[in-house]
Amino acid sequence: MDHFLYRDGQLFAEDVPVAEIAAQVGTPFYLYSRATLTRHFRLFQEALSGMDHVVCYAMKAASNQALLTILAKEGAGMDVVSGGEYARAKAAGVPGERIVFSGVGKTWEEMRAALEGGIRQFNLESEPEMEVLNQVALSMGVVAPVTIRVNPDVDAKTHAKIATGKSENKFGIPISRAREVYAHAASLKGLKIVGIDMHIGSQLTDLEPFRLAYRKVAELTETLRADGHDITRLDLGGGLGIPYVRSNEAPPLPLDWGQVIREEVGHLGCEVEIEPGRLIAGNSGILVSEVIFVKSGEGRDFLIIDAAMNDLIRPAMYEAHHDIVPLKEPAPGTEEQPYDIVGPVCESGDTFAKQRLMPPLEAGDLVAFRSAGAYGAVMASEYNSRPLIPEVLVDGDQFAVIRPRPSFDEMINRDTIPEWV
Ligand SMILES: *Cc1c(COP(=O)(O)O)cnc(C)c1O
Fold first, then answer.
1. What does CATH list as the number for 4-31+282-413?
2. pTM here?
């Protein structure tokens, strides 16, 4: 459910007509709904209610400071994967004790900054990382709270580029080696083991892989406890998928996911941490774009729009589907026709959809990509010297630009030309 609905024949974001925002801000732009964002965050809080838990929003999905500040006010923790994300979490007012640090390649500078600023735990992914964190902590005279990310070797049955829990992935340590690695971690004086971490992938639309993975983690908890480790927290990752095709996909709800968590690890008395990203941000955002030309090709019509792969890379990178809807609601019974929907970037990969059925559109018409809130703006680049597009936030009947579009000069002047050129 989201708050982007047709009203009086046009698409609204909460109580504001999207076309009105487009007229003020110019296209293309990302548009977020505050009500949708908070609603999805609260679904996770409810899913784990009664359990000792923290919802650590995986901010790599969408990390505008306004969005982070809204979630921080809701009491969210954050899952960060870089020094920049750690700084964003702190800037949004998230206390260190609610920030978990994930990622396979943390540098010592990043470790140091997090230890200085406060951190709930580091989710360690390898033995070399363990050694470095130990050194950093000892050099600062502190002890770093850690979990170790185990790779439960389950098939998440999702797109290969977003599956992380199979043994061939770069993430975590094989669960079969967990006892050995935990024993080693326990011998390092700069580390304090607090739990176990896992994350098997993204856009999972089936609960079974979660169940299998959590069962393995529950068994491991008992084994590690028997070995004398103090396992008090389980970080169960994120990855719950969203319906990109509204009509025929019904992925499990956070409440169903919460039920699996209760069933598989509820008896262990651990504090549960979850790291949802996509499901919190995905449906909270749309990408609004204008049709530049309709071009008739051989046997097909191209809808050339002013958004491109540099603004939203998911279709090019993951073959992702986004529902694309006109801002003007088509009259009932309007006959649809197939279009290839493409951007202006000089790459054949700059194709959002092939032979997509749409109502007839013409130059100047506005369209919206649904479910563009997660892994949209954060993955944008300035390829083809197209400045990063603005982000806008709606709350009820008000809206504000939460990241302005840079001018060409601002973009150009970030570069410096050495005197000797
Ligand atoms: C990406 C990621 C998440 C969030 O995944 P979603 O599919 O957006 O929920 C959570 N934890 C880790 C470690 C990740 O890398």
1. 2.40.37.10
2. 0.96
